[in-house]
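Budget justification aside, the reviewers requested a transparent look at the raw inputs and outputs of the sequence design task funded under Objective 1. We therefore reproduce one unedited record. The lines immediately below are the structure tokens for a 203-residue chain.
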């Protein structure tokens, strides 16, 4: 037996479809919002990139200058030492810029995912359990309706669970006498409570 996702009655099916579309819209919105948060926080890494580029460029120029002064007689080695030291400090500056970018990227990922995941988890807690309960209930009811004594059992369930004002006149007496019309009406009433029809072919 195939799993039924939507009710057979148009009103119940329309409500289910509307709820599913709202759930989908909710998920898409928060995924979009999470991406926006990720991008906004990620943009804070721009100063780190500037520092990295500046440090790298400065280190290259200082090393080039050191190589140039190295050829100066007598004092070449002496002059190159401070320039190489300054180039090393520039490398550290570039490394600090790289590390800053990595930390910002980690923060952007954490905030972006958290911003999207928490509302989606809330949706799953509120929307998914009732939806699954309906799917399982409709499957049980359809299996019951397909049994030879299914109508009798469904009629009994209707007598026990449906509001009194929904029951047809003489429902209990008709069920005891196995009145076919009363039994069918009660069975149809029980199925209708879940948006199913008694006369529909079972998948």
């Amino acid at each position: 037996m195939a799993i039924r996702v939507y009710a057979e009655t148009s009103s119940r099916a329309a409500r289910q479809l509307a709820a599913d579309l709202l759930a989908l819209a909710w998920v898409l919105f928060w995924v979009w919002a999470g991406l926006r948060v990720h991008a906004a926080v990620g943009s804070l890494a721009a100063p780190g990139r500037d520092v990295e580029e500046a440090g790298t460029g400065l280190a290259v120029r200082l090393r080039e200058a050191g190589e140039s002064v190295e050829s100066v007689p007598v004092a070449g080695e002496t002059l190159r030492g401070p320039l190489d030291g300054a180039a090393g400090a520039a490398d550290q500056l570039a490394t600090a810029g790289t590390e800053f970018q990595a930390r910002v990227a980690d923060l952007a990922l954490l905030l972006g995912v958290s911003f999207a995941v928490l509302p989606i988890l809330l949706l799953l807690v509120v929307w998914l359990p009732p939806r699954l309960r309906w799917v399982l209930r409709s499957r049980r009811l359809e299996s019951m309706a397909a049994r030879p004594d299914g109508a009798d059992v469904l009629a009994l369930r209707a007598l026990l669970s449906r509001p009194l004002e929904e029951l047809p006149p003489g429902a209990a007496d008709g069920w005891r006498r196995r009145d076919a019309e009363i039994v069918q009406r009660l069975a149809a009433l029980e199925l209708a409570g879940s948006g199913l029809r008694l006369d529909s072919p079972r998948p």
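The chain has two domains: 10-135, 147-198. DSSP finds six helices and no strands in the chain. Computational costs for records of this kind are itemized in the attached budget.
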